[in-house]
């Protein structure tokens, strides 16, 4: 597990801001959720602003922080320049705030915020690409890192072009490129990154071995093809091709779920800790999102599509990220503060290094909130959606408390 030498491991002070700031953005986004109704649309500028607050401030911030640590593990090489990460989080954080303010208050701020986000991601991509050049063994996870970063580059360039269109009047067809931007970032980067990292993290934390990896290898290829197909369909403005691309991506995610089932069946660790519960809810949300997405793609009502996206983002993405925080942060703290003491004095176990009660509260409030709000979207009920959003906000408070508690564990 985590065979990371001190030569390659980045300092804890570099990674900690990503997790703390990401958690704070999650808290802010959660508290703002109740202001929306069950009839919200992704074309609504206030929804677009909230989506960037959540996806850039929380999802991307946490993923970048995790990648700072996981790159040495996955690629078995050191970063090209780990110091780049000291620049990434301030640029990403300030850029996110400016973009959100641009969407909500002053469109002229969008290009400036978009430029800061673009620069932060280009720095991240530069380090990752230069690090990949040192890799000798090209595994599926290595391919995933390479491909996802290509999609991220395309996604942020499209997003920056749209920011210029809204904030500076540059001629960009927002309605044409918005969905392509979403597919490139959420499908091409976030989803494929989760697929690649889960092949490392799930067997490691669940002690799974001996499972067949053919489904995820096939799923990866189909998902990449689906994202590329959607981009081409957008270029040629073909509704039929976009339809086929969406079906392709749904099929790829279904195959990925089968791979997760194979990993689950071969696990040796049977403990139902907060990480395992989060994985169950996250993958359960994905299993619910896929048929809803299929119905929406086949011409179902808009509320079905909203519910599908909700369970994908707030159920699948969020619970996989939050669940892994309870594993990754304790390890980072242990590695920084206790690994030099091994063999000299008693050191804590990782299971002792997260707050059990706060973690349980976070899980149950968040799970209840995602479920209630999701069905509120499905049945177009503002009351259910706002009630669920309130539960999510309460869960976010416990998440921030847990992150701070874990960060300060053993601190003198």
From TrEMBL:
Protein name, per record: Membrane protein
Taxonomic lineage: Bacteria, Pseudomonadati, Campylobacterota, Epsilonproteobacteria, Campylobacterales
Ranges that cross the membrane: 12-33, 53-75, 87-106, 112-132, 144-170, 182-206, 218-236, 242-262, 274-298, 304-321, 363-381, 387-407
Organism whose genome encodes this protein: Hydrogenimonas cancrithermarum
Keyword set, alphabetical order: Membrane, Transmembrane, Transmembrane helix
């Amino acid at each position: 597990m985590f065979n990371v030498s001190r030569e390659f491991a980045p300092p804890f002070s570099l990674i900690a801001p990503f997790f703390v700031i990401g958690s704070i953005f999650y808290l802010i986004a959660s508290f703002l959720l109740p202001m929306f109704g069950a009839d919200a649309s992704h074309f609504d500028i206030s929804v677009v602003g909230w989506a960037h607050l959540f996806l850039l401030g929380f999802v991307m911030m946490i993923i970048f922080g995790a990648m700072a640590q996981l790159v040495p593990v996955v690629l078995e090489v050191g970063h090209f320049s780990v110091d780049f990460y000291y620049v990434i989080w301030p640029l990403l954080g300030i850029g996110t705030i400016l973009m959100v303010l641009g969407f909500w208050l002053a469109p002229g701020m969008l290009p400036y915020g978009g430029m800061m986000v673009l620069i932060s991601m280009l720095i991240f991509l530069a380090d990752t690409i230069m690090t990949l050049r040192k890799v000798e063994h090209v595994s599926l996870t290595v391919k995933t890192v390479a491909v996802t970063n290509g999609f991220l580059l395309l996604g942020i360039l499209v997003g920056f072009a749209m920011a210029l269109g809204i904030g500076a009047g540059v001629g960009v067809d927002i309605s044409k490129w918005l969905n392509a931007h979403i597919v490139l970032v959420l499908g091409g980067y976030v989803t494929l990154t989760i697929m690649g990292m889960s092949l490392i993290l799930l067997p490691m934390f669940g002690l799974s071995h001996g499972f067949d990896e053919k489904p995820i290898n096939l799923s990866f290829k189909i998902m990449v093809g689906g994202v590329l197909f959607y981009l081409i369909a957008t270029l040629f403005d073909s509704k039929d091709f976009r339809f086929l691309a969406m079906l392709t991506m749904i099929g790829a995610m279904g195959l990925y779920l089968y791979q997760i089932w194979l990993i689950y069946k071969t696990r040796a660790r049977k403990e139902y800790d907060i990480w395992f519960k989060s994985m169950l809810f996250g993958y359960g949300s994905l299993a619910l999102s896929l048929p809803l997405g299929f119905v929406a793609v086949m011409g179902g009502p808009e509320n079905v599509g909203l519910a599908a996206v909700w369970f994908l983002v707030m159920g699948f993405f969020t619970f996989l990220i939050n669940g892994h925080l309870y594993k990754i942060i304790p390890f980072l703290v242990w590695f920084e503060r206790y690994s030099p003491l091994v063999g000299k004095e008693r050191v804590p176990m990782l299971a002792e290094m997260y707050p059990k009660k706060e973690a349980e509260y976070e899980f149950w409030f968040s799970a209840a909130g995602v479920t209630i709000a999701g069905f509120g979207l499905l049945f177009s009920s503002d009351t259910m959606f706002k009630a669920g959003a309130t539960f999510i906000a309460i869960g976010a408070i416990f998440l921030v408390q847990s992150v701070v508690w874990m960060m300060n564990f053993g601190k003198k």
